[in-house]
Amino acid sequence: MCRINTANRTMNSAKSMGHGQLWRGVGGAGAAFAEELARRGFDLLLVARRIELLQQLAGRLTAQYGIQVRSLPLDLSKPEASDQISQATSTLEIGLLVYNAAYSAVGAFFDHPLEDHLREVDTNIRTPLGLVNAFGKRSWQPGMAVSS
Hints:
This protein has 148 residues and is an alpha/beta fold. 41% of the residues lie in helices and 17% in strands.
């Protein structure tokens, strides 16, 4: 999770922070993050590959908490994923980013093709780095501190 100097804002003032953005929010820990942010009043953008699960979770959170939920079906292991997300959110104020995706080729290194290891790099490094860069540039102003 990266937080860009939110000054006097807290997670309890969700509406002042804009949308929370959550990746891999359709099951397990991702769904738990989405549930808690929705409970606190955050509008959400959920991103994952499986659109049917995205839509189910979005519908449930909207009905239960009265928030707005947008769904973006996207494979985060693709090199262009952060650019696609940045474009899709260009009109949104993103106040909180939760990146809950990871990929690991389990087993001996050479038992896996190079493509598996490149997928690890894209999912675990390229996409989250691209997102922090994109959203950080949108909200950063001279004099702000950036921490992770």
